[in-house]
Write a structure and sequence with these properties.
Helices cover 21% and strands 31% of the residues. The structure holds zinc ion. Zinc ion binds next to loops.
């Protein structure tokens, strides 16, 4: 364990260390991969965990975590009444290669939580669960559209059909500047970090999903100040030094959406996807979302909306395969004041 960079006064409070697991690859049979963790505060509740980089092609969350760590490193022990653990690069090997999956075993780490331990990603998931998830009272798991999707930036909460986040969860979600909150049900198969956190009774767990098709300073700042707000609102951070930065970006969510099994629209053929509508557009059942044009015959296959709702995502790249999810349409289950 070693002290992080920061002022001398807080050197006994801020610690950084590596959470290790072993992988076997072509060059070494037992290489240790250490995932950096930075902690601030006394160790007492509220204990807040910010985890990013479970997918290695989603850079907004990691960037926000690094910037937040620097802000917190400048504060003194008296500024914290709780504890925070920050993990910018949860799936370090995937981050280093800019991949969604872990190069050690080509698995999606976010399908490995709470599952039998078969390969390296399961070991990493188990380590994260026992060392970090179990420790925390409040968890924010940071994701984005990655290389695969353009998303309407939003917050997600595993609540199931028809459920809207309320109480403490909603209060913390409103620390962010997002207009949209989505209640999500299991995509099938389980194993996600958020599913597992909810199973373990971490009911304050939610994710941010920024538009991952491009990385930009605005998205990073939105996440950064949202995380800061969670520390302030939860009572973890007592310092008001940066409150003006947070308050100026804060925004109560204006709509609650439901992302269920019927939200995912599947490509029925390979081809070149041409969108017909914009992200955030309202759709009725049967409305045109886009078309998939065959690269060999130029034949067009229409993609239509299965439900009434809002277009939340489409592919970041036009090249799609049969079976790919080419659109996410979410039903509106609540609006501001409703
Ligand atoms: Zn992700």
């Amino acid at each position: 364990m070693s002290a992080t960079a920061g002022n001398q006064e807080n050197a006994d409070m801020a610690t950084s260390y590596g959470l290790g697991y072993r992988v076997s690859d072509d060059r070494n049979a037992a290489r240790v991969i250490e995932t950096p963790v930075v902690r601030f505060g006394s160790g007492q509740s509220p204990r807040v965990l910010f985890i990013a980089g479970i997918h290695g092609d989603e850079p907004e969350g990691p960037a926000a975590c690094i910037k937040l760590s620097r802000i917190l490193a400048e504060l003194s022990p008296a500024d914290f009444s709780g504890s925070v653990a920050i993990v910018p690069f949860a799936n370090r090997l995937a981050i280093e290669q800019g991949r969604r999956t872990n190069p050690a075993d080509s698995r999606d780490l976010n399908r490995c939580f709470g599952k039998p331990v078969l390969t390296e990603s399961h070991v990493l998931a188990q380590t994260i669960e026992t060392e970090l998830m179990a420790w925390a009272d409040i968890i924010v798991d940071l994701h984005s559209g990655g290389r695969g999707y353009s998303f309407v930036s939003h917050l997600e909460w595993i609540g199931g059909e028809g459920a809207a986040p309320g109480g403490r969860v909603r209060e913390l979600m409103d620390c962010f500047g997002y207009d949209t909150i989505a209640t999500v049900s299991d995509m099938g198969g389980g194993g996600s970090f958020d599913d597992r956190a909810m199973e373990l009774g971490k009911t304050l767990s939610f994710s941010t999903e920024t538009n991952g098709a491009t990385i930009n300073a605005r998205d990073i700042d939105t996440v950064l100040w949202g995380l800061y707000g969670v520390l302030r609102k939860s009572g973890c951070l007592s310092s008001q030094v940066h409150d003006a930065d947070w308050q100026s970006r804060r925004n109560e969510a204006k709509r609650i959406l439901y992302m269920g099994a019927e939200s995912y629209v599947t490509a029925s053929t390979d081809g070149f996807f041409i969108p017909a509508v914009k992200l955030s557009d309202a759709l009725q059942p049967g409305d045109l979302i886009g078309e998939i044009v065959s690269t060999s015959t130029l034949e067009s296959t229409l993609v239509t909306s299965p439900i009434a709702g809002v277009l939340m995502a489409h592919p970041a790249s036009a090249t799609v395969r049969h079976g790919d999810c080419v659109a996410v349409v979410c039903a509106v289950i609540g609006k501001k004041g409703a």
